[in-house]
Amino acid sequence: MKIVWCITGAGHLLRESFQVMRELKESKDVKITTLISKAGEEVIKMYGLFGELNYISGGGYYEEIILEREHPSSSPITGRLSLGKYDYLISSPTTGNTVAKVVRGIADTLITNAIAQAGKGFVRSLIVPVDYEAGVVITKLPYSIDRKKCNCCLKCVEACPNGAIIVRKRFPEIVLSKCLGCGRCKRVCPNGAIIEGKEIKMRVRKVDAENTKRLMELEDVVVLKHPKEILEYLL
Ligand SMILES: Cc1cc2nc3c(=O)[nH]c(=O)nc-3n(C[C@H](O)[C@H](O)[C@H](O)COP(=O)(O)O)c2cc1C
C-alpha cells in the first residue's frame, strides 16, 4: 500500500499521529511519503519528533520526506496524486488553517495542493482535523519554563545545543522557533523548572468546526476524529 501522509503545523494530535505512522510503517508492505508544511516542520521540531521521520519515510522511492520549505510553489510532487499513484492520502494532524483553505478550494501550499490533487486523481483522503467539533480540547505544549521554579542558574542556556534559550531580564526563555525538542535543558535543570507537554485547554471555535463539517462534503474525503481511527479504517 502506498500512502502520502501530510503533516501541518498543529501540536494537537501530533504525537498520536506519529504513533499511527510508526504502526503503519511496521505493518507489511506500506510505503509512506511524508509531506510537511512549513509550519509543520517547525512544530514537529519543537516537539522533538523530527528524527523519527527518517524511520517512517526511509528515503527510498515513495518513501521520501518532502518539506514545503524546500519545494517549488507549484508542488510538482503532488502530480503523483493526480496520476492516482497512491492508495490513500492521509492528513493528520490538520490545522484549522489548512482545513479552511481546503473547503474553499484553495490549493496554494504543499498540503492544500496535495489534498486537491488527490481529489482530482480519485485518491481517497483520510483527514484528521484538530478542530473536529465546537467545544474545548486539552492539548499539550512543547517545552516551556515554569518561572516560579526557576532559580536563574542558566544551566539550561549552556546545555541547549541550538542556542534556543535566551536570557531576558535574568530569566531564561525558550525561543520555540529554534527549539529542537531534545530535552537537554530539562535534564540539566536542578529545579524541575522545564516542563515538557504542559496541558492547556483550547477552544475549538465555531468557524473551525463548521469548516470541518464542510470538509465531510468533499468528494472522496473521509473525516476522522482521532488518528487511531486511521488504523481501524485501513487495516
Ligand atoms: C507549538 C505550536 C503548536 C500549534 N498547534 C496548533 C494546533 O494544534 N492547531 C492549529 O490549528 N494550529 C496550531 N498552531 C498554529 C499553526 O502552526 C499556524 O496556524 C500555521 O499557519 C499553520 O500552517 P499550515 O496549516 O500550513 O501547517 C501551532 C503553532 C505552534 C507554534
Report on the structure:
By secondary structure, the protein is of the alpha/beta class. The protein contains 10 helices and 12 strands. It has helices at 14-26, 38-46, 53-56, 79-82, 96-103, 110-120, 155-159, 184-188, 206-215, 228-234; strands spanning 2-7, 31-36, 65-67, 88-94, 124-129, 135-140, 144-145, 165-168, 171-174, 194-195, 199-204, 221-223. The radius of gyration is 19 Å and the shape is globular. The site of flavin mononucleotide (FMN) has 19 residues, from α2 and α5.
Low-pLDDT sequence parts: none
Rg is 19 Å
How much is the average pLDDT? Answer: 96
CATH architecture term of the largest domain = 3-Layer(aba) Sandwich
CATH homolog superfamily of the largest domain? Flavin prenyltransferase-like
Q: What is the helix fraction of residues, given as a range? A: 25-40%
Work out the count of structural domains. Answer: 2
Helix/sheet category: alpha/beta
Task: Enumerate the distinct ligands.
Answer: flavin mononucleotide
The ordered H/E elements are: EHEHHEHEHHEEEHEEHEEHEH
At the first level of CATH, the class of the largest domain is Alpha Beta
Give the CATH topology of the largest domain: Rossmann fold
Question: Roughly what fraction of the amino acids lie in strands?
Answer: 15-25%
Tell me the span between the first and last alpha carbons.
Answer: 11 Å
Number of helices: 10
Q: Could you give the order of strands across the largest sheet? A: 3-2-1-4-5-12
Shape call = globular
Largest sheet: 6 strands, parallel
